């Protein structure tokens, strides 16, 4: 499986591994091997090793704590104490080690525990700092991805312009078109607008 990394933050990309949360949720971390694949694609570790079912369950719990805390940040609300505690505890473990191998090449070492600790650390930095004010929810219909709005004008609306932005534009175009037809300019054929 190819995972998306469009949030401009590792912790938010991790939260996005549960998609379409409010309509038809799909957990992209369905199997332990999915978590290993995510960790590798996220560039966190070269060899995540074998992931146990228990580790996957824990990863999902941390992911949901991150998601809820991000939503709280986006709304300017308080984070749940239990979520903060989980993110904090998880971050205390050993982290992924990134070591220079040669010019242009690094080695990233760590199993799933180290990967989770690193994600939780990054989440802690985000939620504990000023960037928490940049957390946004994608404006795409049904899309529940979160991202950081680092645009200069502070007007980023989409998790991904291609995935959600162009789809929304196409829908708006269809609405305008059908609206024009429905409002019944009698002379206008479907291709005349
Ligand atoms: Zn989106």
Automatic annotation (TrEMBL):
Signal sequence coordinates: none
InterPro entries: ABATE, ABATE_dom_sf, Znf_CGNR
Domain Zinc finger CGNR: 135-177
Pfam families: ABATE, zf-CGNR
Source organism superkingdom: Bacteria
Protein's name in the database: ABATE domain-containing protein
Source organism of the structure: Streptomyces huasconensis
Lineage summary: Bacteria, Bacillati, Actinomycetota, Actinomycetes, Kitasatosporales
